[in-house]
Amino acid sequence: MRHGLTLLEVLLSMTLLSAMAIVLAGTVRSATGILPDAAVPLAWQTAAEAAVREVGRNLESRDRGTRLDRSVVIESQSLTVFRADRTSVSVEFDGDTLSRVIDGRKRMLIGEISSLSWTFDPNSDHLRVDIVHSEGASVSKTWSLAP
After folding, report:
1. Percentage of residues of the chain with pLDDT beyond 90
2. 126-143: per-residue pLDDT in tens?
3. What would the pLDDT profile of 110-123 be if each residue is shown by its tens digit?
4. Which residues contact 92 (CB under 8 A, 6 or more apart)?
């Protein structure tokens, strides 16, 4: 009675095992290649929502004792809020970056922006911001600036 495997059986089993490992490695590589691509827009979306919340906090701190057109100044690339404590906060869009400026100190809020727009409706006193990522993701928010 003979025990063990022949050389042909060992080579055949190693070939099958190698083929399965190659297929599995290709599947794992393609699956992990998808994750970083999905993580970037998700991280950007989270950062954009935080930037929008920052703009909202700035708007909440505006000087409500003066006319709206003097407490909030909207330009094509920036939004400046004059606060009740007589300081101002600006949010500026420059290139592909949105930054906050207080007392001359600039702090980046978010990057990789392809477009940003501020829209003010004087009939309803609503301010809307739309921020679009370079790969298409977007965040929008509307605030009521009525007293």
Report:
1. 35
2. 999 999 998 888 899 999
3. 999 999 999 988 88
4. 77, 78, 98, 99, 100, 101, 106
Give the per-residue SS3 of 15-61. Answer: HHHHHHHHHHHHHHHHHHHHHHHHHHHHHHHHHHHHHHHHHHHHHHC
Distance of CA 104 to the CA centre of its chain: 25
Measure the CA–CA gap between 72 and 61, rounded to whole angstroms. 11
Which among 80, 109, 81 is positioned nearest to 97, based on CA atoms?
Answer: 109
What's the predicted TM-score (pTM) here? 0.69
Give the Cα separation of 60 and 80 in Å (integer). Answer: 13
Three-class DSSP category at 121: strand
pLDDT value, residue 39: 64
Q: What is the DSSP pairing of strand 126-133 with strand 138-144?
A: antiparallel
Measuring CA to CA, which residue among 119, 146, 4, 136 is closest to residue 64?
146
